[in-house]
Design goal:
heterodimer; A: mainly alpha; Arc Repressor Mutant, subunit A; two-stranded antiparallel sheet; 9 helices; 5 strands; elongated; disordered C terminus; B: mainly alpha; four-stranded antiparallel beta sheet; 10 helices
Chain lengths: 211, 256
Amino acid sequence: MRDSTASPKQILEALLFAAEEPLPARRIAAMIDEAIPESIADLVRDLNADYLREERAFHVQEVAGGYRLVTRPEFASWVADLRASDASPRLSQAALETLSIVAYKQPVTRAELESIRGVTVEGVLKTLVDRELVRITGREEGMGRPLLYGTTDNFLEYFGLPSLDALPRPDELEILFADRERQEELALEQEPAAHALGATDDDEHADGEEE
Amino acid sequence: MADEARSGHSVKIEALDFEGPLDLLVYLVQKNEVDIWDIPIALITEQFLTYLQGMTAERLEAAGEFLLMAATLLRIKSQMLLPRPEVEEDEDVEDPRRELVLKILEYQQFREIADQLRDREAAGRLVFPRGLQDLADELEVDAGPDLPEPEERVSLSDLLRSFTRLMEEAQRDRVHRLEPLGVTIEEKVNFVRDRLRRDGQTSFRDLFVPGEPRSHWIVTFVALLEMVREGEVRLRQGERFGEIHVYAAGGAGAGE
């Protein structure tokens, strides 16, 4: 029944073409005979190389734990006309900030989000849940059992992220690190400063209030 | 006192819109080009309060958050004014600013991540995945011109409501039995197809044969959804929440 002349790359292409959502490598491998999940990335690379050479208007994107076919950015203006109906407005600064925190701190309570942003997030959280970028993942144990929030697969798709690991991970550890370094520095400074108390006040960064 | 001197030329920031007190603090720290680990708290507090005074009426509901921060700043400022405790060597003398600084830094980092997400959002808006639109959209097919009576389009929720009602009715006086499914979607698609070929149209209800196991009804329902998605059938409703009619989509069925 199956065409034995079909190459794994062709099968992959057919599956991606027909898929309604990003296809995980594992699933693709299970559908292509004799393929192991690790080899799917190679097949995808191959396919993308073909598309590039043939100047196709689309390519395979790795997103939300899977692969999908997407149009190339160069064709955005035309395709956008076609898809005008499902265009959603851009996210606000407040929404992006809140999302960033949810992404890194999940599962996270509203109180934690508000503590980090220093403002209430009730409205913005509702927007994010409505847009299926954030979902309620459960309740925290303990006082009041507040709701916990986390990001969705749609979040990954919306931002074109293969997985949460692909999030920009600049300096999450840097704060802690810098802080520790700084603490050591302070500890070192503390002693001479203590001895010099009242003796000199011409330090450039003196707080200016110690008169 | 250098700090106080610099604050002499008051900073024109009132008009700017900030996300919140931390956003304002980040701005002030950057604007004054001060060392985050050695914030001139008097200067920053003063500028912060200046901003607060300039806050317009419509932002008053957000003022609470700013006031809270102002209180924190003033507390830190007063703590800085206190003479440092006499040398207690082993005691950890904590900088009163430290907690605030960590908060600012943490917030700043998430803001940077937000910036990166914004870039990704912009890039993401330029690519379009293949794929079908939501089923719900597809079900809302335009009303054909040749329908016998004004009929409403059928939404997915209408359809589900009708089906749930049917299932509930069937549930009464029934015992649960586990049995093999015994029917495929394909068979049910053919069943619907035959019915439409014979009668041209059918009511949604009539597709569910009384006495059939409910599992079969579910398969029929799935088959119907499949056919709607494929554009093979159309659904119409005489009135909102009324009986749903099923038509073959290909020209012949609709008007008969």
